[in-house]
Amino acid sequence: MLVGMVEELHPQCSAKGCRASAAWQLLWNNPKLHTPEYRKTWLACDEHRLSLGAFLEARSFLKEVTPFVSSEDAGVS
Ligand SMILES: [Zn+2]
């Protein structure tokens, strides 16, 4: 019942200009910038999972895509 007050904690898609809720997390690593075990995380909505993933994959940065589950968000539309 209190979730309406925590808007900045509501995880959003990382795509530019997209304010959709995140449904996926893309874990990636740029070997020029990061140590091999480091994972940078982008959040993506259903729509942008493929385009963000393709961007990372084209650069061989993409390591893993996993469903993003935020239990706090249950009931928020
Ligand atoms: Zn999006």
Description:
- It comes from Actinoplanes regularis.
- This is Acetone carboxylase.
- This protein is an alpha+beta fold.
- It has one domain (11-69).
- It has one helix and three strands.
- It has one helix at 46-58, and strands at 24-28, 40-44, 62-67.
- Strands 2-1-3 form a three-stranded antiparallel sheet, covered by helices on one side.
- The longest helix is centred in the C-terminal third of the chain and has 13 residues, at 46-58.
- The protein is globular, with a radius of gyration of 14 Å.
- Mean pLDDT is 86; it is low at 1-7.
- The structure holds zinc ion.
- Zinc ion (ZN) is lined by residues 13, 15, 18, 20, 44-45, 47-48.
Supply database-style keywords.
77 residues, alpha+beta, three-stranded antiparallel beta sheet, 1 helix, disordered N terminus, binds zinc ion
Blueprint (SSEs and pairs):
Layout: E1 24-28, E2 40-44, H1 46-58, E3 62-67
Antiparallel strand pairs: 1-2, 1-3
The structure holds zinc ion (ZN).
Summarize this, please?
The protein has 1 helix and 3 strands, in the order ββαβ.
pLDDT averaged residue by residue = 86
Overall tally of structural domains: 1
Helix/strand order, N-terminal first: EEHE
Query: Ions, cofactors, ligands: which are bound?
Result: zinc ion
Number of helices: 1
Reported for the largest beta sheet, the result is: 3 strands, antiparallel
Estimated radius of gyration: 14 Å
Rough outline: globular
* Percent of residues in β-strands: 15-25%
> What is the strand arrangement across the widest sheet?
2-1-3
Which regions contain 5 or more consecutive residues with pLDDT less than 50? 1-7
Class derived from helix and strand content:
alpha+beta
Alpha-carbon distance between the termini?
13 Å
* Helical proportion, percent range: 10-25%
Number of strands: 3
